[in-house]
Amino acid sequence: MEGTYMKNAESKIVVAVDESKESMHALSWCLSNLVSHNSRNTLVLLYVKPPPPVYTSFDAAGYVFSSDVISALEKYGSDLVNSVMTRAESVIRSYGTNINVEKITGSGEAKDVICSIVNKLGADTLVMGSHGYGFFKRALLGSVSDYCAKHVKCPVVIVKHTDDK
């Protein structure tokens, strides 16, 4: 496949975004390497909220959750989505491209939701940032990007953030 194939063809590129600098770096990499200024590509920004906790009247210690606390937690989740999408849109604007952008927010376990949405969309490429976990943390937690690379039907680009930590 020629290097300019993706830049000239009409394709759907999904970029998984979250609060991390790694995901914004992956978005920047995608805009620099997979998208041209006159692109007919569609860039899909995909954010996955954690699954909503199940609230009962009492928590484990016997405290009562008021509806105000539950509302505040839900509002925080919505604010986080808006913040991430605003940052991503700012990154896209800085590239001066007029690419078609779609925003999708899913809810649930990140690896499952990302794979499901990418496959349903029939995406041509999935771009993800790497959080750079060490061997033990990755072995314990599992890697979302590793899981997605094995379970989606399209190529997956995992962009490593080269910042010194």
Please describe the structure with a list of short key phrases separated by commas or semicolons.
44% helix; UspA domain-containing protein; Universal_stress_UspA; disordered N terminus; 6 helices; alpha/beta; five-stranded parallel sheet; 165 residues; 19% strand; UspA
Overall form: globular
The total of helices stands at: 6
Mean pLDDT: 81
Structural class, by secondary structure, is: alpha/beta
| Helix content class | 40-55%
Distance between the termini: 35 Å
Number of strands: 5
Beta-strand content bin: 15-25%
Biggest sheet character: 5 strands, parallel
SSE pattern: HEHEHEHEHHE
The radius of gyration over CA amounts to 18 Å
Q: Strand sequence of the main sheet, in spatial order?
A: 3-2-1-4-5
Low-confidence stretches: 1-8
Pfam families: Usp (PF00582)
Protein name: UspA domain-containing protein
Domain UspA: 12-160
Textual characterization of the structure:
The structure is a single chain. Helices cover 44% and strands 19% of the residues. The chain is built from 6 helices and 5 strands, in the order αβαβαβαβααβ. It has helices at 5-8, 21-33, 67-94, 110-121, 135-141, 144-151, and strands at 12-16, 42-49, 100-107, 125-130, 156-160. The protein has a 5-stranded parallel beta sheet with strand order 3-2-1-4-5, sandwiched between helices. α2 (21-33) runs parallel beside α3 and α4 packs parallel to α6 (144-151). The longest helix has 28 residues, at 67-94. It is globular and about 55 Å long. The two termini are 35 Å apart. Residues 12-160 form the UspA domain. InterPro entries: Rossmann-like_a/b/a_fold, Universal_stress_UspA, UspA. This is UspA domain-containing protein.
